[in-house]
Design brief:
Blueprint: E1 8-12, H1 22-33, E2 37-43, E3 53-56, E4 59-64, H2 72-97, E5 102-106, H3 113-121, E6 125-130, H4 134-142, H5 147-163, E7 166-169, H6 172-182, E8 189-191, E9 216-221, H7 230-242, E10 248-253, H8 259-269, E11 275-279, H9 283-291, E12 295-298, H10 312-319, E13 324-327, H11 330-336, E14 340-343, H12 348-359, H13 362-380, H14 382-400, H15 402-405
């Protein structure tokens, strides 16, 4: 419970488990370290975050359960409606037991502007933490199949922008969308990048056993959804093996709805013996995989969504000095620059060839790894994002309660970061 005069922050998540959502974990830790009493509400998970209440590093966490047998568009609709009701119920419980000044809602989906309206009526500030461009994500998953639902997704995004006192975005592409589509004052949009935290991402000794007796280890980490292109990485692995290179083990760390289909694809292509589907791994195990690897894979395809997104995996590869092979997408290039080599989008054979080129050039791998580490340290680590988060909170509180926040609070950070 907050002490007298201590500001309170309530963070609501629908599509991930806390503390597995690393962006929200870093946000919550930063707010806590700067005097906020932080409460997070998220779903439970099957492998982590299974309890309905716990305190993590002084952060209070409440969770709710969602059915795990939902699928397709109708399943998402049911999931989102159930989540909306449970988030409202738990947030009202927190309101009765506690006090908070700011409600931060993380997307997707973008339907929780209704919660923001309620709490703004009660004098709370509302912050929209835009993890994804939901219309672009919807398009990448479903294309032209559901035009009326796509229009509803655009409308929900617009209403969320309209209600928000401040908007957090992951990069300048999303910032531009917020200003252009949402008509938001640029001073209310704050770029809070998905920068890695040294507490989590640090270099550890390599574990040769992860290579399974082969010379090289190539690793993918992250979510495995239809929009993430992990099938292209599996096909690139097949291309590499078919090229006669049987000295490479391919590790896939992560889970998602495509995990089982990806295992089936590797079996169908006859490369299962070369592929390690590790599933979800904790931070310590993930770091061990990355620090034992020669190349990190970012197979995000060109699909109308990924070109505007900043992949967490790109930052984490760079943080441990792992050179990257990626498709040439706008925001991937902005983040990684010369820490990556880039294939023509969606061409898995060109992707596989770049992997082989790097495996055969250890000096280039070392140079790229050093470029990545330095970029994280100088520009992209969480310490560089934290001031923007705090400024957003001060600005949002000032809009709701100038006396409490102090009349001098304003956004003094640059309107647009330059990462060149």
């Amino acid at each position: 419970m907050p002490t007298d005069g201590q500001p309170g922050a309530l963070i609501l998540i629908e599509n991930d488990v806390f503390p597995a959502d690393l962006r929200v974990l870093d946000e919550a830790r930063s707010l806590r370290d700067h005097g906020y009493h932080v409460t997070v509400i998220s779903p439970t998970g099957r492998k982590r975050g299974t309890t309905f209440y716990e305190s993590i590093e002084g952060i209070e966490v409440y969770r709710f359960r969602l059915p795990d047998n939902l699928s397709g568009v109708s399943g998402f609709v049911v999931e989102y409606l159930l989540a909306a009701a449970k988030l409202l119920w738990l947030s009202l419980r927190v309101l009765r037991m506690d006090r908070f000044d700011v409600v931060q809602i993380c997307n997707p989906p973008d339907i929780f502007f209704l919660h923001g309206l309620l709490y703004k009526a009660l004098g709370k500030a509302f912050i929209f933490d835009q993890h994804d461009l939901a219309p672009e994500l919807f398009w990448a998953r479903y294309g032209k199949k559901l035009p009326l639902l796509l229009k509803a997704v655009y409308l929900s995004e617009k209403l969320t922008y309209k209600v928000a006192d401040a908007v957090l975005v992951e990069n300048d592409s999303v910032r531009d969308a917020a200003i252009r589509r949402g008509g938001i004052d640029p001073n209310r949009v704050f770029v809070v990048r998905n920068g890695p935290n040294k507490q989590r991402m640090h270099i550890v000794p390599a574990d040769p056993s992860l290579k399974r007796g082969r010379s090289h280890l190539v690793t993918f980490e992250g979510l495995m959804g239809p929009q993430d292109g992990v099938d292209l990485a599996v096909r690139a692995a097949h291309w590499i093996v078919q090229s006669g290179r049987t000295d490479v083990t391919f590790a896939f760390c992560g889970d998602g709805e495509e995990l089982e289909p990806l295992k089936a694809l590797a079996e169908e292509l006859g490369i299962s013996e070369y592929v390690d589907f590790a599933g979800f791994v904790d931070s310590e195990t993930l770091v061990r995989y990355l620090c034992s690897s020669d190349v990190g894979l970012t197979p995000d395809p060109l699909n109308g969504y990924n070109e505007f997104s900043t992949a967490v995996k790109v930052m984490e590869y760079m943080a441990v000095g792992l050179p990257i092979v990626a498709f040439d997408l706008r925001e991937t290039h902005v983040s990684a620059q010369d820490a990556a080599v880039y294939a023509e989008p969606n061409d898995y054979a060109a992707f596989g060839k770049l992997v082989l080129d790097l495996l055969d050039d250890p000096a280039k791998r070392e140079r790229m790894g050093e470029i990545g580490r330095q970029r994280i340290e100088d520009v992209l680590s969480w310490k560089n994002s934290e001031p923007h988060l705090l400024s957003a909170y001060q600005s949002a509180i000032a809009r709701r309660s100038p006396v409490r926040a102090g009349t001098s609070v304003r956004n003094e950070l640059p309107a647009q970061e330059q990462l060149g």
